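Thread: iron/sulfur cluster complex, take 2
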Amino acid sequence: MEMEEARKSPRVRLVNRRQLLMRTIDVERLIEEDHPARAVWEFTGRLDLSRYYEEIEAVEGVAGRSALDPRMMMSVWIYAYSEGVGSAREIARLCQYHPAYQWLTGMQSINHHSLSDFRVRNHEQLDEVFVNALGLLSAEGLITLERVTQDGTKIKANAGGDTFRREEHIRKHLEMAQQQLEAMGDPESEEVSLRRAKARQRVVRERQQRLASALQELERLKAEKEGEIRVSTTDPEARVMKQPDGGFAPSYNTQICTDAAQGVIVAVEVTQAGNDFGQLVRGVESVEENLGRPPDQVVADGGFTTRENILEMADRHIDFIGSLSTGDGTNRLKALGVDPAFYPDAFIYNPGDNTYTCPAGNTLKIHGKEKLTGYTVFRYQAQASDCQACPFKAQCCPKSKKGRGVTRREDAPVVAAFIDKMNTDTAKEIYRQRSRLAEFPNAWIKDKIGLRQFSVRGLLKAGMEALWACLTYNIQVWIRLRWRQQSFQGVVSS
Ligand code: SF4
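Output below.
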């Protein structure tokens, strides 16, 4: 049999990396027609960015380098945040090869310093843009202010828990930084490398500035509270706050007000407050500042529902839906060793003579009253001799020598009306919807944008980063509810 002819080597297209290529790129066609980057660009085109343009020094007809276009910078940041990118370095890298960023920048490369500066350059300008965006969304019918929810979320500060120091530590290190700076002398005289000497000096100077502001913050806190005070030497304005997982971490409390109609964020504030009690009034004021009028109704959880806030909302003619804790004082009674069978429910109130009758049939007379915000507390006291001789003393008032006391709380009419309202099915249903409406933007900002920790330091800059995140979120609402429907309804349905 004739031998089979030997098989020849297969021929493949080899990879050749030793070549230079020139390609034609149609920048306009880098991304599809319905790409969200186009929507971001369209939205920023409608914003009034005149304040950003006004500060540009380069002008037509005069030699010099042109400035980066604020609309482009804003679009890049918003698109980046919508993709969960919050780092200027990462964006600068993406601008070199990612089609969406290349389309937005028109293939320009952008330095990460320029991106960082743009993000935190001017709080007022960004605030104006946020308000301007709300105006556009309102004009498109996406905001009604009929119902607004408010919720707070803790976002970690850009500082570790181990950076909190006492006054003496900060003073000592501030002095050391000063000595180090003096020992460095004039960088111009450095023979080795002027650039390195200046860089070293800048690092020490920045550290000195951080320590100085930590000391300043510490002095401010000393005026507010007593005891041992520590502040972070990395971000002095951050506060240690309780986290949803029960732990504690340096954080800021970010307050977000959301319009219930379509879920647009209508106000955002970053605060140092560890709890939400004092934030409701500021929340409705922010909504009014941003949109020209307060909401008709505000819905917030128990963390915001105090008698002070109920009265304040009533004064402002805002319908408040919340959850008021009426605290029955059982924890205190438990600590005093009182048997649950002798808790206040076991005492009968006699409105006729304003007294109580105890389980042993004795009378507790009025012993005083205290008027507090939104309610009055009335105190009643049994005769010491009655209690000493009572067979129930060990269960009713084991530690008292003066005899058992009971308190009665009388709410102000506005608070009583609030409690009655919250017992209705309508109010209960509105409150039930609260978590879905209020917590969605918070979750989106943390999960989609990735803002679980601020990438900048200080209250003002953290506030700006929260504004960027909320502006991005609002533009996403617009893309979903308006841009996609208006621009591609025909395409999708055909
Ligand atoms: S201890 Fe005093 S208040 Fe309590 S049941 Fe006896 S008499 Fe009444």
